[in-house]
Amino acid sequence: MEEKFNRLIFIPIAAVLFLMIGYQYVCPADSNTCYFRSEDQGLFQRYSSGFKLVYPELEADEDLPSKITARFNFTERDLDRQVDFNIRGDDVMVFLHIQKTGGTTFGRHLVKNIQLEQPCDCMPGQRKCTCHRPGKAESWLFSRFSTGWSCGLHADWTELTSCVPVVMNKRDKKSAQRRKR
């Protein structure tokens, strides 16, 4: 008898939890958009017979912003910040590759398509490109496509912060020795 009672309680509790999770999916807590709250626009409209699916038609000449807004934890100041990169100075761009985020494509873009005074020199068939500063044999880019896996395979932030200065100093010493000869 008690087992049947437990089953009868479990079903409504599971249904309530399912509805709560579903509601949070449709109407997130920190969002101003909820498809059920909209009076006359949105995915659903209320009619006397219930909810009816509606696709609002926008005219082509209307310049309305997209209803889908990205929600990131960046402030306006973060997004508008300007970074001065001096390719002729001592600045080094370190590329931190995060797996499964398009990092390989972006890394290739850095060495092949970036518009700088002296872009990277990529030879067909080679995996690494040479990314030297104008008039110097020093590298301005630290990535797997310019220096290889110098800090190990998929090095994280901690590994890169300790490894990059050591590797760059070794490379600078080698290039200085080559110039002296």
Automatic annotation (TrEMBL):
GO terms for molecular function: heparan sulfate 6-sulfotransferase activity. It is an enzyme of class 2 (transferase). Its EC number is 2.8.2.-. Keywords: Glycoprotein, Membrane, Signal-anchor, Transferase, Transmembrane, Transmembrane helix. It catalyses: alpha-D-glucosaminyl-[heparan sulfate](n) + 3'-phosphoadenylyl sulfate = 6-sulfo-alpha-D-glucosaminyl-[heparan sulfate](n) + adenosine 3',5'-bisphosphate + H(+). The keyword Kinase does not apply. It is a single-pass type II membrane protein. It is found in: Membrane. It holds the Pfam family Sulfotransfer_2. One of its GO terms (cellular component) is membrane. InterPro entries: Heparan_SO4-6-sulfoTrfase (IPR010635), P-loop_NTPase (IPR027417), Sulfotransferase (IPR005331). The chain crosses the membrane at residues 7-26. The keyword GTP-binding does not apply. 6-O-sulfation enzyme which catalyzes the transfer of sulfate from 3'-phosphoadenosine 5'-phosphosulfate (PAPS) to position 6 of the N-sulfoglucosamine residue (GlcNS) of heparan sulfate. Belongs to the sulfotransferase 6 family. This is Heparan-sulfate 6-O-sulfotransferase. It comes from Pleuronectes platessa. The lineage of its organism: Eukaryota, Metazoa, Chordata, Craniata, Vertebrata.
